[in-house]
Amino acid sequence: MTLRRGALALLLLSLSGCVTYPNITQSRSPCRMDPGGWCGFVREAAEVSYPYALAATNAYEGDDDTFSTLGGSLVRLERLPVEEDDGDTGFDYQIFGQFKQPLSSAEGDAGGRQPDAYIMAFRGTDFDGLADIFYGTVRDDQLELAHKYFDLERARFSEDAEWIATGHSLGGALAAEISIRHADVKAWMFNVSPFYRGKSMTNDSNRTVINERGEALRSLRKFRAAPASDLFVINCWPQAGRFTKHKVRPLADCITWIAAYESKDALSVVRANEVRKPAVECGEDGKEHPGPGTAQTEPCVHIARRKEDADDE
């Protein structure tokens, strides 16, 4: 997947490598008459990335904050069982088929069509126990398991198809590892953990990171650099605390909401899952998404963070 020319030009100018700027995606005066107050390159980037945000969220299968409906662009596929000893490390993942032309409801799960790409979504840290922290951060066990199951799944489905790795937090670090070893695999990472092992600059142009501004892992990145990538810092929930900001579902909600200004499929996900407006966007909390092609008739001024409202600092 590639961003459109306008978005790519801006990315190359301001987001290449590990370079980013605070609040780059917060609406400023030139974008207040854009849909939702979101600049064009932000909407286009969200349109490209929202399927991977959905997949990274639903890698946490069994949790109560996954998406119940993924729209027509994604279908969850049956994956290989994770061996018991491997599962004891906290490692888990899901496989999704991605369709560039969304499936219609009449086509069912896949309608006999072959996916345009396969997405391997790695689950991040499960704080119900310490296995993830020990085997995924202190030791390299989960990193090796990511390579093991990626190779098995790629051989099972199709080595010739496009493969994409994604994940949130620790899952993002695992996705980075896959992209470092495989030059033909792109990775999309959300609130990514810096605890990866490969050489950061290897295949760095194949990775995109989207982090919520002020989320919990930002302090760790001061001591250990995140994998080199095109990096977006987005300010969706300025009044939330850093641990709430680290969660994948609020970030995925925000990305999908922004994408719905460009994509009918993203809009279907927003409506089916009752995704709420990002706190930063103008309008009432219960604002209904107007969908693609809607003109902004009044300036949409994004709401700045009020420090006294932070809940987890």
Structural topology:
Layout: H1 5-14, H2 40-58, E1 74-77, H3 84-87, E2 93-98, E3 117-122, H4 131-138, H5 141-157, E4 162-168, H6 170-181, E5 186-190, E6 207-212, E7 230-234, H7 242-246, H8 248-259, H9 264-272
Parallel strand pairs: 3-4, 4-5, 5-6, 6-7
Antiparallel strand pairs: 1-2, 2-3
Helix pairs in contact: 1-2, 2-8, 5-6, 8-9
Give a brief rundown of this model.
The protein has 313 residues and is an alpha/beta fold. It is built from nine helices and seven strands. Helix 1 packs across helix 2 and helix 2 packs across helix 8.
Approximate strand percentage: 5-15%
- Rg over CA atoms, rounded to whole Å, is 19 Å
Structural class assignment: alpha/beta
Mean pLDDT: 82
Topology as a string of helices (H) and strands (E): HHEHEEHHEHEEEHHH
Strand order of the largest sheet: 1-2-3-4-5-6-7
Low-pLDDT stretches are: 1-24, 307-313
Straight-line distance between termini: 37 Å
Number of helices: 9
> Helix share of residues?
25-40%
Note the overall shape.
globular
Q: Tell me about the biggest sheet? A: 7 strands, mixed
Strand count: 7
Task: Describe the model.
31% of the residues lie in helices and 12% in strands. It has helices at residues 5-14, 40-58, 84-87, 131-138, 141-157, 170-181, 242-246, 248-259, 264-272, and strands at residues 74-77, 93-98, 117-122, 162-168, 186-190, 207-212, 230-234. Strands 1-2-3-4-5-6-7 form a 7-stranded mixed β-sheet, with helices on both faces. The chain is an alpha/beta fold. It is built from 9 helices and 7 strands; from the N terminus they run H-H-E-H-E-E-H-H-E-H-E-E-E-H-H-H. 48% of the residues are buried. The longest helix has 19 residues, at 40-58.
